[in-house]
Write the structure tokens for this entry.
Amino acid sequence: MKKWSLIVGLVIAAVVAWYLISPVFRVVEVHEESPLIKDAMETMDAATKVEFEKAVEAARENVMVMTDTMPGPARVVVQGLFKPSAHDVMGRALLIEVDDKKILRFEDFETINGPDLHVFLATELGIAGAVDLGEIKATKGSVNYELDPSIDTTKYNKVLVWCVPFRVLFSYAVLQ
């Protein structure tokens, strides 16, 4: 009986250890387009650009009246470099405003993975009173987090990468 209890205990411990340690070895790489890209022509290859210019030339005779206003340009409100806390990190965080939307962008970001990593907007290096933006999208790359319009972004000056199960601050950026 003691032998079976020991075996069951070891199996459970191994499963829990694997759950907690295995994310460290997984790199999730994502590259989302920046909302700051202003000119689509800059991202076109030569053949697409020629085709686009032909279509524009063919449409010159058509007149359209717009009643809607054009969206304003995207702008960086505040930004900061990520700094290590419990783990090394690279990259920067940008708060971008596009029309009525606010987007938190991680650019050239890289860190190790961990169990249940979340992104928070905070006023201090802890999650008391912080806003949880959900699970981290990637441990490497450039990603966007669209913010709920109800979030008062002027209140928060820090972006935290937080390991929820261990209550550990992986890294942070001070937005200025």
